[in-house]
């Protein structure tokens, strides 16, 4: 949560906060008075206790002042981040957290790192016009003849990039993706600028504005992988200025960063030249650079767009190749897709295999590096993960080493909304939104709808939740798959059809795709009869053990019936009667991925 939001919440409880931070102070009229932020009795520090200004403080003798987070920092001698943490504890607010995958990163060694060579220093100051104080603040160094940009966080060397003059680059491998420049950011800063390169960050600093840089330049996706690891650290800043190049990749990065860090607090900076270092070399004044920050704008709300913005998109609609997540079976690829921005319902009568099918789908996606998040209220997390691991192994009795390697290899690809029993719909949505933004999740699964805190017959509540999930999928450009029960029809011998989805009408209207998972019970009975009495299986009974009957597919209108063969020993669903189960992640690959 941003520092200013925390300060606002504190000001609603200002009486308690001042008594905690300044216990020796006392009330004088509408203010709490103390001697200073050190807490002694006196008059010079005053905190407003009422009205619009509640929580605003100033110390007449030191000239300090600000809001209650600032007071917390001053009284407790804490950095902004630590003060926010303590204040959140005080307020009893738990921040949404999914701990980042514990991926092991390399740390660069400091071996061979020496003071900045004079040749490097001269290039920085004379050619690039970077101030010497800036070079010191960012603690640039030299190493084996290379100019070294150290990525420091709390004094720890997390990563490093190198430049050989004039223009060769390298970086230490396997290091954590993180921002450059924390060493130059004041502990008390309430806003930061983010640039597209280290020299641009240092150029802004030379102008007097300490700045961070992304590690891998513009572009989207993996290029902005640092967001996952820096997300918490950036949470306290009220304003984040994005000063990236105004070319295609720069704008793509701007959009992705603003979406994920919060459109409301990100401001896009436009400069008179290509980037901040160019401005510095061209002699743009500090006043003009400050004006660029002042004039920085939020990105327009995603809902507001000019028709001309769609030029490329309109043309690509003419030539569009339908795109989306593909199911594990190749024969479905032209028939059914889980499209970004869409919602699907996977419905079926009890015991017809909905959970097993969706688990196979997630297993296939996650092992192909599609980030997935599953809220399974049907089973405890270790249980559904165990089932999925068996499907991934594709063998009935995998070894312990294989299962451990599979689970390790799923790090960074599969997340669980880990609650036992019923979960609250609102909380699921909050966590999904967080997971989508932080980890770029492409497939979110709810298994199942009735276990999201609704009474069995609360169809209005379920309908509203499905509507919220559909809005979420559309706005975030991700896919949400919802498992839902079907009413028992007279006999399970025939698929039940769309109207049997519980709470139907409303729910199926709202989503883009409806799939009925139907298990071929007549075939199972006929097989038993064949074994017991030798009665041949009648031709009219299809030979597949499960059918995915697509009852609605808004994008294409295709409503195929997809036959699958259930393999009991691995619980995999196979695309043909002659197919054999196969590993979705062979042991050797699982070991290298882990
Ligand atoms: N075609 C099939 N033939 C035999 N067994 C199957 C078939 N499909 C699924 N199963 C098995 O049936 C059991 C029930 O499956 P699953 O839990 O996935 O059903 P579900 O539709 O999600 O049930 P519920 O509505 O109770 O949650 C599991 O043990 C699963 O492995």
From TrEMBL:
Database matches in InterPro entries: DNA_helicase_DnaB-like_C, DNA_primase_Znf_CHC2, P-loop_NTPase, TOPRIM_DnaG/twinkle, Twinkle-like
Residues annotated as domain SF4 helicase: 318-580
Positions in coiled-coil regions: none
One Pfam family per UniProt: AAA_25
CDD domains linked: TOPRIM_primases
Annotated PANTHER family: T7-LIKE MITOCHONDRIAL DNA HELICASE, TWINKLE MTDNA HELICASE
The name this protein goes by in its record: Toprim domain-containing protein
Species annotation: Rhodanobacter lycopersici
């Amino acid at each position: 949560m941003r520092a200013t939001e925390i300060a606002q919440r504190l000001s609603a409880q200002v009486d308690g906060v001042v008594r905690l931070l300044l216990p020796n102070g006392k009330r004088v009229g509408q203010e709490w008075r103390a001697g200073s932020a050190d807490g002694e009795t006196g008059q010079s520090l005053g905190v407003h206790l009422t009205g619009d200004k509640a929580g605003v403080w100033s110390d007449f003798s030191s000239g300090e002042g600000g809001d209650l987070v600032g007071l917390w920092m001053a009284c407790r001698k804490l950095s902004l981040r630590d003060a926010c943490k303590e204040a959140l504890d005080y307020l009893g607010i738990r921040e949404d957290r999914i701990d980042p995958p514990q991926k092991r990163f390399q740390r660069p060694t400091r071996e061979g790192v020496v003071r900045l060579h004079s040749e490097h220093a001269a290039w920085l100051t004379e050619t690039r016009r970077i101030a010497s104080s800036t070079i010191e603040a960012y603690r640039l160094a030299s190493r084996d003849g290379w100019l070294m940009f150290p990525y420091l966080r709390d004094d720890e060397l997390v990563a490093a990039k190198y430049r050989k003059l004039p223009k060769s680059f390298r970086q230490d491998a396997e290091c954590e993706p993180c921002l450059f420049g924390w060493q130059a950011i004041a502990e008390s800063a309430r806003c930061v600028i983010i640039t597209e390169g280290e020299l641009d960050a240092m150029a802004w600093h030379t102008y007097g504005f300490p700045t961070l840089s992304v590690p891998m330049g513009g572009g989207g996706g993996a290029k902005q992988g640092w967001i996952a690891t820096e997300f918490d650290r950036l949470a306290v800043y009220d304003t984040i200025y994005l000063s990236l190049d105004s070319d295609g990749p720069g704008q793509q990065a701007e959009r992705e960063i603003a979406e994920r860090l919060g459109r409301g607090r990100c401001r896009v900076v436009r400069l008179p030249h290509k980037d901040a270092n160019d401005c510095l070399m061209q002699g743009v004044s500090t006043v003009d650079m400050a004006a660029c920050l002042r004039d920085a704008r939020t990105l327009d709300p995603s809902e507001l767009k000019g028709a001309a913005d769609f030029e490329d998109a309109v043309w690509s609609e003419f030539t569009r190749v339908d795109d989306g997540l593909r199911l594990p079976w190749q024969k479905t690829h032209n028939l059914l897709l889980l499209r970004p921005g869409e919602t699907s319902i996977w419905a079926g009568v009890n015991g017809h295999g909905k959970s097993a099918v969706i688990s196979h789908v997630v297993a296939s996606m996650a092992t192909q590096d599609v980030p997935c998040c599953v809220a399974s209220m049907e089973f405890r997390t270790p249980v559904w993960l165990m089932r999925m691991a068996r499907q991934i192994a594709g063998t009935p009795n995998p070894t312990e080493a294989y299962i451990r390697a599979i689970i390790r290899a799923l790090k960074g690809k599969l997340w669980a909304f880990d609650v036992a029993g019923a979960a609250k719909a609102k909380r699921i949505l909050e966590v999904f939104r967080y997971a989508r933004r932080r980890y770029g999740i492409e497939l979110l699964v709810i298994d199942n709808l009735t276990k999201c805190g609704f009474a069995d017959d609360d169809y209005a509540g379920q309908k509203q939740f499905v509507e919220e999930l559909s809005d979420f999928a559309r706005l975030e450009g991700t896919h949400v798959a919802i498992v839902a029960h079907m009413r028992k029809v007279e006999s399970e011998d025939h698929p039940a059809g769309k109207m049997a989805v519980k709470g139907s009408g409303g729910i199926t209207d709202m989503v883009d795709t409806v799939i009925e998972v139907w298990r071929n019970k007549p075939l199972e009975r006929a097989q038993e009869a064949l074994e017991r009495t030798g009665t041949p299986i009648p031709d009219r009974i299809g030979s597949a053990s499960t059918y995915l009957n697509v009852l609605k597919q808004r994008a294409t209108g295709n409503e195929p019936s997809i036959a699958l063969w259930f393999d009991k020993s691995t619980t995999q669903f196979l695309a043909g009667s002659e197919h054999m189960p196969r590993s979705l992640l062979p042991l050797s690959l699982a070991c290298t991925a882990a």
